[in-house]
Amino acid sequence: LVMELISRAGKSFTMYGRDLSKTAEFGVGKRNYNSSAGQAFWIDNIGDQRRHTTLSDVTEATRLGDALEQITIPGAMSDPLEIPLKWRCIQVALEMIKNRFC
């Protein structure tokens, strides 16, 4: 049954941004470039000690990823330790929504 349902499932799909001209298409032979998410540590300059990431790092990473045309799906690139774990993902998502340009 599972294999039959998989064989009937769609083989391509499109994700749309708030700006509908910005899309991520899957299964159509195109590449999508995503920034990674959830780094616990950042290094600000070569040779510096690594540090725990913060919510302001989420803001900076979101703005950077959103400004780069090559990035199809921006990620938070930060897992801010100062936010309690039980609602960290919600705060990160909110910060990303607040700081998108499109």
From TrEMBL:
The UniProt record lists the keyword Iron-sulfur = no
Q: Which family does it belong to?
A: Belongs to the trimethylamine methyltransferase family.
From the UniProt record, which GO molecular function terms apply?
methyltransferase activity
Q: What is this protein called?
A: Uncharacterized protein
Against Gene3D superfamilies, the record matches this protein to: Trimethylamine methyltransferase-like (3.20.20.480)
What species does this protein belong to? marine sediment metagenome
One GO BP on record is: methylation
Q: Which UniProt keywords apply?
A: Methyltransferase, Transferase
